[in-house]
């Protein structure tokens, strides 16, 4: 998030013939309007920063002059409601500051210019305009890399999730004789230094053109507020969520080329005109500008970029090698799982005329735990089916292993036994959304996964909210407001999970869930799990005090995790209109592990396997080793807290 003020400068004439990359039109199933929730969350998350920028930096005496009209432009508006949410946030913040400074002046009138490429679907955008008429609206077609407005005609310019789109693919990337020819990828993956250098240079050139154009259009004392998609320093794009999605798209096109559906030549000539700069690159190009003073550069963590995935591979720090406690839960639940299948599974309805029995493990991760669990399920289903239908052919089992898109499915698949007795498939995606066709599963299963939320609650990240979680990074239970926000997010997520599964599981099928829970009235920080989380937070806090990470970064970091009470879990299950709750059992194994010094190394490794990806995604690769070198020492110093 960047905001800055224009300074006086000479006029630059810029000419270009930009390419055009409009989002999918209309408001149908495949439209951008219906499929831009991630961008909407960025707009919502930036609201506090935008308001603060306007409050601290907007100068009405210069920017408004004698005119009572306040002109706003959204560069790269696209077609959905996101631009309307953003401009509404801006209008509210401007109104608030203006009225506090000039309480006796007439109210401002707002004119909002919505800019995007010439072939943007302005019709759909205009159809979404609110009927209240709080502002005068106009659509401005053209590339924001060029001049679009008369000199000194705008008071505030805004752009969100648009400036990573380049004016064109770098020429070198398309040149077969260039070292930067990007033959084996469709985007700037970061693997090739030459490709990355070409993309970085194009981004720098485009940003300079954008700033030079805005310098002539924005009045002195006005603001330019930009939200730009970026990457952490020393991170390859292909290691990020965005980059992985681009790689998957490239793989689909490569498969189609191999099948002769598209030409190899066409594929090699296709590159995405997208570049996500590092924060340092963005700062450098802004600081070089001769026309703007940079007032603030803020890093903003957004929810969809933080995925709670376990440590990949099967090495020393992997989840595969450090998930013994989760394995213990799977084994302990075996008797309950067998009993549920024996008592409740109805083959007559659930299998129909097909001999295939479909099972899905939601939140499978990478280790062998999911295989142990599914083998237990298969054995129990087989036993019941054979006892009911001894003369029928045996069932065939199809197992779907589900987890986030960037879960390490490769390691999972390599861990399969050499002669497994099922047909396997990996299903990438959040289990809070639909993942399967209607009535296609006979049994759904999840173990030690549903405490992971779809996102951190918005209120917890909002500095102006009573639920701002400044002094912790998880739901410790100390603050009622924080606890209420997390509890509401859990309830909403569980309802989404159950509603999705209700459409996917056949009548007579089963949904078996093992969920972490707390006794009623327990404060999370008083539990073993809460103490180990607090120790992790203290390590990060020490690093912030030493200047190794920023205070701002630490305050913006929260775990998307909530452990409900048993009563909370029962309530959300009982409210669901699609499932009948047949059995809720408390599984009590050994909730408080041994607190002897021998636990320090295994527990530290387990915490690293679980949390290192979250920490890496938020703070960057460079701090991961340091955090988990500190953790065993801090854990050793705090063992006494776990014994109390």
Helix content: 40-55%
What is the class of the largest domain in the CATH system? Alpha Beta
SS-based class: alpha/beta
Quaternary structure of the protein:
single chain
Number of E-state strands:
12
Q: What would you give as the CATH superfamily of the largest domain? A: Vaccinia Virus protein VP39
GO molecular function: metal ion binding; methyltransferase activity
Protein name: S-adenosylmethionine-dependent methyltransferase
Organism: Turnera subulata
Keywords: Magnesium, Metal-binding, Methyltransferase, Transferase
Give a description of the structure:
The protein is an alpha/beta fold. It has 2 domains: 28-305, Vaccinia Virus protein VP39 (Rossmann fold, 3-Layer(aba) Sandwich); 324-453 and 484-518 and 563-586, Vaccinia Virus protein VP39 (Rossmann fold, 3-Layer(aba) Sandwich). It contains 21 helices and 12 strands. The strands form 2 sheets. A 7-stranded mixed β-sheet has the order 4-3-2-5-6-1-7, sandwiched between helices. Strand 3 (109-116), helix 4 (122-127) and strand 4 form a beta-alpha-beta unit. Helix 5 crosses helix 8 (279-288) and helix 15 (480-504) crosses helix 18 (566-575). It is globular, with a radius of gyration of 27 Å.
């Amino acid at each position: 998030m960047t905001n800055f003020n224009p300074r006086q400068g000479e006029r630059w004439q810029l000419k270009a013939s930009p390419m055009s990359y409009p989002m999918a039109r209309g408001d149908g199933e495949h439209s951008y309007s219906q499929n831009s929730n991630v961008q909407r969350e960025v707009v919502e998350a930036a609201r506090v920063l935008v308001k603060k920028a306007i409050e601290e930096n907007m100068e009405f005496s210069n920017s408004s002059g004698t005119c009572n009209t306040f002109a706003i432009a959204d560069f790269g508006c696209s077609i959905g409601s996101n631009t309307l949410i953003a401009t509404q946030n801006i209008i509210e913040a401007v109104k608030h500051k203006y009225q506090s400074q000039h309480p006796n002046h007439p109210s401002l009138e707002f004119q909002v210019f919505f800019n995007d490429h010439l072939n943007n679907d302005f019709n759909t955008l205009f159809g979404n305009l609110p009927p209240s008429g709080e502002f005068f609206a106009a659509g401005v077609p053209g590339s924001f890399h060029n001049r679009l407005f008369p000199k000194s005609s705008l008071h505030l310019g805004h752009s969100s999730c648009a400036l990573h789109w380049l004016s064109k693919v770098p020429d070198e990337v398309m040149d077969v004789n260039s070292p930067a020819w990007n033959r084996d990828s469709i985007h700037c993956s970061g693997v090739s230094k030459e490709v990355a250098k070409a993309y970085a240079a194009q981004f720098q050139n485009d940003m300079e053109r954008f700033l030079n154009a805005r310098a002539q259009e924005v009045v002195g004392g006005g603001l330019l507020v930009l939200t730009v998609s970026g990457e952490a320093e020393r991170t390859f794009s292909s290691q990020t969520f965005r980059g992985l999605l681009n790689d998957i798209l490239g793989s689909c096109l490569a498969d189609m080329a191999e099948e002769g559906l598209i030409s190899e030549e066409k594929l090699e000539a296709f590159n995405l005109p997208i570049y996500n700069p590092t924060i340092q690159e963005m700062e450098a190009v802004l600081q070089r500008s001769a026309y703007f003073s940079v007032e603030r550069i803020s890093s903003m963590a957004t929810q969809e970029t933080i995925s709670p995935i376990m440590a990949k591979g099967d090495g020393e720090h992997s989840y595969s090698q450090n998930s013994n406690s989760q394995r213990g839960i799977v084994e302990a639940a075996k008797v309950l799982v067998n009993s549920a299948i024996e008592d409740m599974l109805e083959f007559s309805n659930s299998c129909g005329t097909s001999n295939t029995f479909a099972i899905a493990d939601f939140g499978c991760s990478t280790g062998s735990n999911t295989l142990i669990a599914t083998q237990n399920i298969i054995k129990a289903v087989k036993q019941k089916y054979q006892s009911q239908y001894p003369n029928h052919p045996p069932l065939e089992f199809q197992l779907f292993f589900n987890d986030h898109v960037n879960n390490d499915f490769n390691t999972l698949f390599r861990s399969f036994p050499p002669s497994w007795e099922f047909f396997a498939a990996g299903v990438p995606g959040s289990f809070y959304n639909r993942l399967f066709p209607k009535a296609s599963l006979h049994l759904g299963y999840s173990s030690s996964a549903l405490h992971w939320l779809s996102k951190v609650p918005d209120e917890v990240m909002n500095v102006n909210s009573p639920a701002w979680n400044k002094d912790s990074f998880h739901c410790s239970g100390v603050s009622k407001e924080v606890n209420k926000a997390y509890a509401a997010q859990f309830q909403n997520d569980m309802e989404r999970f159950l509603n999705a599964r209700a459409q996917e599981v056949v009548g007579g099928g089963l949904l078996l869930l093992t969920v972490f829970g707390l006794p009623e009235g327990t404060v999370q920080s008083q539990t073993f799990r809460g103490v180990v989380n607090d120790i992790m937070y203290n390590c990060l806090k020490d690093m912030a005090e030493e200047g190794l990470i920023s205070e701002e970064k630490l305050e913006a970091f929260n775990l998307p995790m909530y452990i409900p009470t048993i009563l909370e879990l029962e309530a959300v299950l009982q409210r669901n209109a699609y499932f009948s709750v047949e059995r809720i059992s408390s599984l009590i194994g050994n909730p408080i592990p041994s607190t002897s010094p021998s636990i320090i190394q295994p527990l530290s490794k387990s915490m690293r396997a679980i949390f290192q990806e979250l920490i890496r995604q938020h703070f960057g690769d460079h701090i991961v080793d340091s955090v988990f070198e500190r953790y065993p020492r801090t854990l050793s110093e705090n063992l006494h807290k776990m014994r109390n």
